[in-house]
From TrEMBL:
Biological process annotations from GO: protein folding
Function: Required for disulfide bond formation in some periplasmic proteins. Acts by oxidizing the DsbA protein.
Disulfide bonds: C35-C38
Organism whose genome encodes this protein: Acinetobacter beijerinckii CIP 110307
GO cellular component term of the entry, any: plasma membrane
Single GO molecular function: electron transfer activity
Keyword Transmembrane listed: yes
Topological domains, Cytoplasmic: 1-8, 162-168
Membrane topology value: Multi-pass membrane protein
The name this protein goes by in its record: Disulfide bond formation protein B
Transmembrane segments: 39-57, 69-89, 140-160
Keywords, in A-Z order: Cell inner membrane, Cell membrane, Chaperone, Disulfide bond, Electron transport, Membrane, Oxidoreductase, Redox-active center, Transmembrane, Transmembrane helix, Transport
Subcellular location: Cell inner membrane; Cell membrane
Topological domain spans for side Periplasmic: 26-43
Length: 168
């Protein structure tokens, strides 16, 4: 099977839909309330999916456009990888080093400038360090980090692959 640009873009859209669907399932069916870091991870995944959807619909012929879309998707999912890594790090801190719980994300967005909101959320809080779901002994942020890293590898491959293969 030949992995053309459009097929990989569709695969990336599908990975975004699957990831967000699972997050919504955990939130609305299992009752897990997402912490601010979880919400920020979702933003990167949704952004990557949206960019991949535009690339799929546009189906660019130009290698420049293909690489541009791939770069945007890579940056977007890279954001999710970075936030998930921070989340895993917070969960592995000794209990006495975990930051105290702060105000909720809704309050932060309403009361503070966006730069301050980003700083506060990315510094983490006690609620982000809490492990309330595991699978095979690993927390949700660990699984998210693995999932996002796999998607990041696909995006990087899409960015750096050779598009000058002769068409049949």
């Amino acid at each position: 099977m030949r992995w053309n640009y459009r097929l990989v873009s569709a695969l990336l859209v599908l990975t975004s839909i699957i990831g967000i669907s699972f997050a919504l399932y955990l939130e609305h069916v299992q009752g897990l309330e997402p912490c601010p870091l979880c919400i920020f991870q979702r933003i990167g995944l949704i952004g990557m999916g949206f960019i991949a959807l535009i690339a799929f619909i546009h189906n660019p012929i130009s290698n420049g456009f293909k690489r541009f879309y791939a770069l945007l998707a890579t940056l977007s999912i890279g954001w999710s990888v970075g936030v998930a890594a921070r989340h895993v790090w917070l969960q592995n801190l000794p209990p006495d080093q975990v930051p105290s719980c702060g105000p909720g994300l809704d309050y932060l967005v309403d009361a503070l400038p966006m730069k301050t909101v980003l700083q506060q959320v990315l510094s983490g809080s006690g609620e982000c360090a809490m492990v309330d779901w595991t699978f095979l002994g690993q927390s949700l942020p660990v699984w998210s980090l693995l999932y996002f890293s796999l998607i990041l590898l696909i995006c990087l491959w899409q960015l750096f692959r050779n598009y000058n293969v002769l068409k049949k």
